[in-house]
Every structure is written in structure tokens, then in C-alpha cells.
Design goal:
Blueprint: H1 2-29, H2 35-44, H3 50-67, H4 79-105, H5 108-115, H6 118-129, H7 136-154, H8 166-196, H9 203-227, H10 230-240, H11 245-272, H12 275-297, H13 303-334, H14 337-344
Helix pairs in contact: 1-11, 1-12, 2-4, 2-9, 2-11, 3-9, 4-8, 4-9, 5-12, 6-8, 7-13, 9-11, 10-11, 11-12, 12-13
Length: about 350
Amino acid sequence: MKRILLIISCTMLAIGTSGGPIMIRLYFLHGGHRVWLCSFLESGGFPIILIPLFISYIRRRRSAAANQSAKIKMVLIEPPLFFASLVIGLITGLSTFFFAFGVSRLPVTTSSLILATQLVFNALFSFLLVKQKFRVYSVNTIVLLTIAAGILALHSSGDRPSGETSKKYLVGFIITVLVALLDGFIFPVVELAYKKVKQTISYTLVLEVQFVMCTSASLFSIIGMIVNNDFKLISSEARQFEHGAVVYGIVLVTIAVLFQFLLLGGIGVVFCASSLLSGVIIAAILPVTEILAVIFFKEKFNAEKGVALILSLWGFATYFYGETKQAKKMKKNLLPPEAEVLQVLPVSNA
């Protein structure tokens, strides 16, 4: 069952990672202007989470009835973790707004490469918050991704979309770096919350945490939409959308679904395997996102982007190799001496 869940989660993560930025860029290129609306859509598909939560509840109730055990709780999350999830959700809401803003200003081929630097911030905050040690391979990855981002920053003049000023492009670049910083902060702080609370972490509890975070992030974006008068302007924007109101609605729904795929797939991979595998999948999908942007939007893919992509993939490969080697070393150290002896003994059928 866990293997099936892992396969489903990997597929959802891959689809969301490659499709989400493409659809948001499509929205902005063909007549969309509402950044706060896109911010809301990145988390606003959270009611989808109710489906696996309901299935989980039914299964737990049937299991309790079969075992004649005590009445089960409908909601597992307890107040400390609930309030921590609310706060983290507000940070997520800020991140989704920055992401939508950055994608509205930058080509997908550029923003995707910048967002790859979140691994740098993830490593830094993991060291500060959960005391994860820096290792040679993680330092190497940080250097490579920092150089990649630096190359993009220094050679950004030829990448600027037509009609956009250098100032707007620079603001979009800086905001996208802030997205990488916030995304790199969110996962370590969630891990810290899990360590501080006195609850057994199950997949159902992880889904509930995700539901609370997305609800909080969506409320944050809704407030922004109200202040920006987005609700009054959505209908007129739909009519003026380049491909018509029907396609406009389909684009918005698709954005919401794809980003929930990304979120649900990510937490599923972390639960079934590790955050390392989640990062590897995102890294592996990076070239796919780049290719899709070049095909659909005719974006330029110059030599600087090529070098930045190679450096990013090199950094991720180094990180993956180092983490895998470290995990094997830790697993070997945890094995008792008798277990190591049993592993090398031949199996007899006698």
C-alpha cells in the first residue's frame, strides 16, 4: 500500500512541479493581471484534501469497529500543532504571493532556475532550526546553486520580456529569490513543529496539517484580493481574456488543481520516503519545465541559462549522492553486530 502511495505521490509531484508555473505564466501572458488571485489559487484548491481525509477516516472507523476498540477521533491534529500550522500557513501565503508576482515578471526558464536555489536556504535553515550538520557535499551544492543564480543575475538583460523595464525585471528577480528563501524556510520549520509536538506523525495527520496551512494561506490571499478589488475585476478580466471566458475559467481551475498536486505529492513523497527524494524529483523535473516553457512560450534559452541549468543539476546530483551515502552509513551504524553477521551468512533450505 505504501509503495502504491509513493508512486501516486511521485506522479502528482512531477505533474504539479512542471505544470503549475507553466499555467500561471499562461494566465499572465494571455490577459491575466491579478497577482493576488494567482496567489489564492496556489493554495485555494485545499478542499481536494478532504477526499483522502474522508477515506482515511472511513478506514480508521472500520478498523476500530473490526477490532472493537475505542471510538476514534474524526480530527487528529491537536491545538499546539494546529496553531503552528496556522502561522506557517501565513508564511506560505506570503510565499505564494511572491511566487505569482515573480512569474508575472520573469520567463519560466529564469524563475525555475532561481527557485532551484531553495535547497541552499533549506540547508541553512535546517542547520539553524533542526541542527542538521553541514557536510562537504551540501556546501558544494550551495556554492554551485549560488553561482548558477549569480550567472542569471549578471546576464539578465537579454532575457527581459519585451515591454518590461529593467527595474520591473529586477524587482521580479529579487522577489523570486525571496520565494526560494521562504520555501527553504517552510520545510525546516514544519520539521521543527513535528519535533516539538507530542503527537505520533501519521499520513492522516500530515494531510490535516497541510489542510490547515492551505486554509490559512488562502485566507491571507483573500484579504489581499479584497484590498486590491480583485473580486470586482475578475468578471471583466474573464471577458477580456485572449481566449475567452470559458478558457479563462479552465486556466484558473487547472492552476488550483496542479498546485494541490504539487503540495499533496510533496508531502506524500516525504512521508513514504524522504524529503531527499522529493528534492530529487523536483530537480529531475527542472529540465522538463524549461523545455515546456521554450516550446509553448518561445522563451529564449541562451548559453547563460544552459550553464545555470547544468550547475543546478550538478548541485542536485552532488546533494543526492552525498545524502544517499550518508543514509547508508547511518543505517549500517544502527545495525547490531548480530544483524551484520546474519546478513553475510548463506541461507540454507535444509
